[in-house]
Recover the amino acids of this structure.
């Protein structure tokens, strides 16, 4: 009987959550987009208001359900709903944001209880001209928070990059997964 896994993607508006799920999904993504009506409209035309949903079908027959949270705090009631029974969190951060470390701190604080029970990997997007520096800062901050420094530069449009984030998260949950050990 194939297994079904659930992963959650979270992060600020414009960090690449919806794009990442579209990149990974083997089905048409279910999206709950609405026209941006506040300061978000300066960043993009639409925003996720409930969730994004996609599905990865693995060669083993197993499935990975991918859920993307809304990036805006006013929709945070969805965060608890979407993390229920999930294996871990892929936190997407935008390197070109005004303060990626503040974004990291905000989201880790909001999801800390969930992260402490599961696993976390940070995907750093929009890395043109500074991704390496931001990745180093994020890794140091994760260590300061008592979390594994798993931060990876990734293009949300690139299936290989997004697959690497998912594998890193799974290995964070079970370090022997895929190695033939354990």
């Amino acid at each position: 009987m194939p297994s079904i896994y659930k992963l959650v993607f979270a992060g600020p508006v414009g960090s690449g959550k919806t794009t990442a799920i579209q990149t990974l999904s083997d089905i048409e993504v279910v999206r709950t987009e609405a026209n941006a009506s506040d300061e978000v409209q300066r960043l993009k035309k639409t925003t996720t208001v409930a969730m994004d949903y996609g599905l990865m079908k693995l060669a083993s027959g197993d499935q990975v359900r991918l859920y993307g949270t809304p990036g805006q705090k006013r929709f945070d009631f969805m965060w608890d709903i979407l993390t229920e029974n999930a294996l871990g969190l892929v936190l997407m951060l935008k390197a070109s944001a005004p303060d990626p470390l503040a974004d990291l701190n905000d989201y880790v604080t909001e999801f800390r209880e969930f992260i402490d029970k599961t696993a976390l990997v940070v995907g750093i997007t929009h890395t043109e001209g500074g991704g390496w520096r931001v990745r180093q800062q994020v890794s140091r901050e994760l260590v300061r928070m008592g979390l594994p420094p798993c931060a990876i530069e990734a293009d949300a449009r690139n299936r290989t990059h997004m697959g690497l984030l998912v594998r890193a998260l799974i290995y964070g949950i079970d370090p022997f997964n895929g190695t033939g050990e354990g």
User: Anything to note?
Assistant: The chain has a mean pLDDT of 86. DSSP finds five helices and seven strands in the chain. The radius of gyration is 15 Å. Helices lie at 17-24, 77-83, 100-117, 131-144, 159-173.
